[in-house]
Specification:
The chain has helices at 2-39, 55-65, 80-93, 104-116, 170-178, 194-206; strands at residues 72-76, 96-101, 123-127, 130-132, 140-142, 152-157, 180-189, 210-215, 221-226. By secondary structure, it is an alpha/beta fold. The strands form 2 sheets. It has a 7-stranded mixed sheet with strand order 3-2-1-6-7-9-8, sandwiched between helices. A two-stranded antiparallel sheet has the order 4-5. Helix 4 links the parallel strand 2 (96-101) and strand 3. The longest helix is centred in the first third of the chain and has 38 residues, at 2-39. It is globular. 32% of the residues are buried.
């Protein structure tokens, strides 16, 4: 009986154990890379994945940006993506980054980190508190009235947190699509979740010509383009 239970336990938890091992391996490799960056005088990132954007998703954004010059980029949800995007724009692209965050304490934290990396001149930060939407979708999201009326080349929607409601990311998605330059793109992180899929479905009804292109990433990623 004990052997049967042991085999059952191993079968049930085998995948979990492998995932834990992979997470530990990722953490060690990531930490080593950041140590090397520090020793070479480069910016040091805090851990990615989890609630932060994953490296495989960020690679899609950077691959798109390398085909553009002097881009205007906006991200909804500050974080380690702020450091990566601003560094790339400063060193390769020549553009500027608009970073939108609802949490003032976390915003100040990222501002200190980017300042320490010498990136402050490349970023325009906006504190956008959460407020109830003024339409039929009763779900708090960013107060987008604080943002400038600017055309963008690339947007990353990675906030607000889904704990605020199913359609909390719909407002930044709508804003980003409306402000796209010709040939521009919106990236939605965490697109594998049902919450993001609901936002995409609603957005598609508003913009039938919107092209939704899935990309391979740990938590799901889609590109949104208006042809």
């Amino acid at each position: 009986m004990k052997s049967i239970l042991r085999r059952l336990r191993d079968r049930v938890f085998a995948g979990l154990a492998r995932q834990q091992d992979l997470d530990r391996l990722y953490g060690q490799i990531s930490g080593l890379l950041q140590i090397q960056n520090a020793m070479q005088g480069k910016s040091v990132l805090r851990p990615m994945r989890g609630w932060a954007i994953s490296p495989d998703a960020m690679a899609w954004l950077l691959a798109d940006l390398q085909e553009r010059k002097s881009s205007t980029v906006i991200e909804f949800g500050s974080g380690q993506s702020t450091v990566v995007l601003a560094s790339y724009l400063q060193n390769r692209n020549g553009g500027r980054l608009i970073s939108v965050e609802h949490d003032p304490e976390y915003l100040a934290h990222i501002q200190r980190q980017t300042a320490a990396c010498g990136l402050s001149d490349r970023i325009q930060f906006f504190h956008a508190p959460l407020k109830q939407a003024g339409d039929n979708i009763q779900c708090p999201s960013y107060d987008l009235d604080v943002l400038p009326d600017v055309a963008i080349d690339l947007a990353l929607v990675d906030g607000p947190p889904i704990s605020n409601g199913i359609f909390t990311r719909l407002k930044p998605l709508q804003w980003a699509v409306r402000h796209l330059k010709p040939g521009g793109v919106v990236f939605l992180d965490d697109s594998a979740r049902e919450v993001e899929q609901a936002c995409l479905k609603q957005l598609k009804t508003e913009h039938p010509a919107l092209r939704i292109v899935p990309r391979t990433a740990e938590k799901g990623l889609v590109e949104l383009r208006l042809d």
